[in-house]
Amino acid sequence: MNIPAQPMATSSVSVGSGESRVSKAKDKVKMNAQGVKVFYGDAQAINGIDLDIYENEVLAFIGPSGCGKSTFLRCLNRMNDTIDICRVEGKITLDDNDIYAADRDVVLLRAQVGIVFQKPNPFPKSIYENIAYGPRLHGLARRKAELDDIVESSLRRAGLWDEVKDRLDKPGTGLSGGQQQRLCIARTVAVSPDVILMDEPCSALDPIATAKVEQLIDELSESYTIVMVTHNMQQAARVADRTAFFHMGDLVEVDSTDQIFTNPQDQRTHDYITGRFG
Amino acid sequence: MSISIEQRRQHRLMTIEKSLAKRHRKENAFRRMGLLAVVTGMTLVAILFVSILMRGVPAFWQATFYTDVYFDPEVIQLEPKPERERGESQFDFNERYSQWLTRAGLVNWQTLIDNALEEALGEEVEPRQLRDLRALVTSGERYALRDRFIEDPSLLGQTVELKMLASANVDVWLKGNISRDLPDARQQLSAQTRGWADQLEEQGVIRNAFSTSLFLNTDSRSSLASAGLAGAFMGSLFMMIVVIALSVPLGVSSAIYLEEFAPKNRLTDLIEININNLAAVPSIVFGLLGASIFIGYLRLPLSAPLVGGLVLTLMTLPTIIIATRASLRSIPPSIRQAALGIGASRVQTVFHHVLPLALPGILTGSILGVAQALGETAPLLLIGMNAFVANVPGTPLEQSTALPVQIYLWQGNELRNFFEARTSAAIIVLLGLMLSLNALAIWLRKKFETRW
Amino acid sequence: MSNLALIATLLVMMALAYHLGLTRSRAVAAEHDVRMHSRPGYYGVLVALWCGLPALAIFLLWSFLAPQLIDMLVTQQLPADLVAGLSDRELQTVLRRVTALADGRGVAGGGSPEELDAAAHMARLQTIENFSLVALMAVLVVVGLIVARRRISPNWRARNQVERVIMVALAASSAVAIFTTIGIVLSMLGEALKFFSFISPVEFFFGTTWNPRFSTSGSSNQGEFGLLPLLWGTMMVSIIALLVAIPVGLMTAIYMAEYAPPWLRNVAKPVIEILAGIPTIVYGFFALIVVGPFLSSLGDLIGINIRTTSALTAGLVMGIMIIPFVSSLSDDIITQVPKSLRDGALGLGATKSETIRQVVLPAALPGIVGAFLLAASRAIGETMIVVLAAGNNPVLHANPFEAVSTITVTIVNQLTGDMDFASPQSLVAFALGLTLFVITLGLNVIALVVVRKYRQQYE
Hints:
The structure holds 3 protein chains of 3 kinds.
Chain A: H1 5-10, H2 15-25, E1 29-40, E2 43-54, E3 58-62, H3 69-75, E4 86-94, E5 97-98, H4 106-112, E6 113-116, H5 127-138, H6 144-157, H7 161-164, H8 177-189, E7 195-199, H9 207-220, E8 225-229, H10 233-239, E9 242-247, E10 250-256, H11 257-262, H12 267-273
Parallel strand pairs in A: 3-8, 3-9, 6-7, 7-8
Antiparallel strand pairs in A: 1-2, 1-4, 4-5, 9-10
Helix pairs in contact in A: 5-6, 5-8, 6-8, 8-9
Chain B: H1 2-56, E1 61-70, H2 90-106, H3 109-121, H4 130-134, H5 140-151, E2 159-165, H6 168-175, H7 191-203, E3 206-210, H8 213-216, H9 230-261, H10 266-280, H11 283-297, H12 305-329, H13 333-341, H14 346-375, H15 378-382, H16 403-411, H17 416-448
Antiparallel strand pairs in B: 1-2, 1-3
Chain C: H1 3-32, H2 40-77, H3 80-83, H4 88-103, H5 113-151, H6 158-198, H7 201-206, E1 210-211, E2 224-225, H8 228-259, H9 262-276, H10 280-302, H11 311-336, H12 339-347, H13 352-381, H14 384-389, H15 407-415, H16 424-457
Antiparallel strand pairs in C: 1-2
Helix pairs in contact in C: 1-2, 1-5, 2-5, 2-6, 4-5, 6-16, 8-11, 8-13, 9-11, 10-11, 11-13, 12-13, 13-16, 15-16
């Protein structure tokens, strides 16, 4: 399935394909959150969220800035652990295993739940080394040839192979912004996680690079569960199977993207998508 | 197909999990290495502080005689202190007075001390043992007696209880800083003197008293027990006054110019690199500069705090400039724009709005710079400040030494087992001053810290 | 009139001028019933500057030139038979004696009749000089005051002029730093060249023997001035110091930046800062009385002969001294690596140490290398620790347990005591200083450029 980006960008929501994926995705719950609350010091950022994430779906989080969507996203692979004052309550499972359990290894968790950040952050190493870093860490390739394969296939999946195959030994920081972001996605893909989290992956990119990344997300959704945060409603409408609307630390509403944009149940959702606030 | 994907997934997870234990071991080893480094560093520093404190603190107390001294008219055969008579010219009086002073100096004041000691010991001391007796009290005390008498001639014929410092060797002996098992030949004092010292300590005549001489006296070569830091302290004080008076205004104006007004061109770049480099030039190079320019070319006096202050000023200047620039840079441009927006000139903007806000940072940087200058030794050695000076300097042009240089001089004294402690005590004084300055700077920064 | 009183009077006059300018500008404003160009205070300051600055300039120039002029006149006055055959240095001595006599301080043994005559002459000249200075300054003050006061008008741009003066003053102060560098280079170059007129540079830079032999100046036997033993000693001590300081300092910085809980950071940072400020003489003393004896007895224990004062002692303690320096520089640099890079590695499932070793440190490498170079430059230029603890043994050998000597130690040894700028024994200190300056300058400049590039990368 290779949906060209252009038609998606023009037509508001591609209802047909969206529905087909929703039905496919409903099969199995990949991740589940129950009563998740997040505190920064004394301030509460998330007020208790329950949410199911299905296997191989694209789920978008939308909402005004400061609504907690990024914070919640970062709970899903415990990136919030790196912030000293941040505290998470509630339960989040991955394949029915509690990821905040005491004996849970956060290294393993992050190998299963990868993340792509808002600003492209390639390591100051060569393109090859950027991709090879994850597989090397986790010992996924025993031989150089195997590693080469992983690097090539990851770059291919990210649609970057043809652009960079002649300069794999050049620094990743020398690429353009859009290429850097796809490099970061390829870097994440190279570890073959089950779930990929994306925190506003296109907010630092120009429209053409954005279209490419969106197309990439669409392709990746075949084999990965993707949860993305976006402040751009059109983007959610273009790529997401389901959309969740966050507001002031609450998950207001989650439903198929179609439903959210055409027939929201909550007044706040309605106001937000019609542009009353944002 | 789906099963095969699942299997591959499982296999991958297994692979990762297998290596995990090893990776976590490495993680822990790394973290422990970091902790070890911190602990090592802290331990070394703790050893430094403890060893200096252990050696230095006892030196703040010194073996001191508490005895009755009889100002014996037999010994002090001196006419009354001259008063200026009516009709006598100032010149004649001065002449007469200085003659009297000379005669007072010729009095054998040591005899008074000898007598007092005999009294305390309760025995006649034979003339051949006089040397042993005189080894008890430090030699400076006889001049102290003389000065006391000149100050107050009415003491004649009176008995006064006085505090007199024991000699350095007695102090060492009584504090146990020299082994009591050493044979006579290797002891610094004769057996007789050691016996007397023990006896007098038992009688309570010699007590361990707080050493005011350490703070009030100048360095001494003959009367080691009364060597003090007063001269060095004044020297350091004069130098710091010079440093503060010159380096702070110069450094701050220079930083203001470079940060706020200087056009951004190659020259400014050069000045910036130059200042950063000056901050890293070894201090001894500044000493060479001082020796060549201030002493050799400008013929300023050797060993003068003024010259030391000038050298240290040049050395401190880059530190202050860098700190001030950092402080100015941290003031957001919006403040400047606001002031310029209501019609202030650039100079007014800087002096009325930016500078007051940057003041805490400037102050902190300046204090740290001055503290650094206070502890600097090497350049001072090259401009002659390691000369022996027996007076408290009255002006920045008189010969003087400085606290860190005094430490250098004392550590080299041959009477190691006395001066090791005395040097440590001097270090404690210097560190005390420096740490207070540093603490002041840190406190200022914490108090006025603003996050923009 | 003493200089102090002169300056004080001048300040009082300037205060008066300020007041006059202030009132005058107000009066002018009232008289013409207009707004002045600047606020009254600026007119006051400007009048004060007109009044004070020229007099001050004359004063400075005068104090610099007049003594030399007087010396010259007095020298001419000295009887020819006295001056004849005197070297420059001896002439200086005579002049110093005359000056002492003229000041009324007197000289030991009293002056000769010729000297007394010269002293009287000098005292006369000094009186004349003093009077003319005061008179000249008074005229300048009064003229400046009158001219400036009369110029006060609504159109006189007092503020702009005052600000221009301020700008010139500010720019002049930033020139001090430049002049310091120029002064360092010129003075050392000058004296070093004098030294090289005694000893050839080849002999100095490539000589392997250091034996300056404190002989009286002018004697033919000048001793040997080979730099290499000193350079080697410096290197040995510095390398030992860096071997101690770099691992401990860097690991401390990493622990502080990445692992330490916030409270520990808050405590440790100021402590490290204070440690960096401990005078090196203190470390030197510590080396001499604690570390040296400890190492020596440790050596006895394992059967190695370790001198109390040795390259090892000095290097070890110097390393301890540099730890805080390395650690705070590295800490600054490590914390500058953006969090996004750390997150990138952690998000892939790297452990913290893997993140640090494989991502943070490589990213920070240029900055850290710069910090190491600065530390090396510091170690090379450090003086007091080596003076006290290295043992002063300028011989080429590779045994760290033996005493060595360094460039800095030798500078101190050669230049303390007598200030005699004519013998190679003292002048060599400047050649050594120049060598030291060039080495550290090289290290510093490379380090500063590297660190600067690194900062720009993440700004």
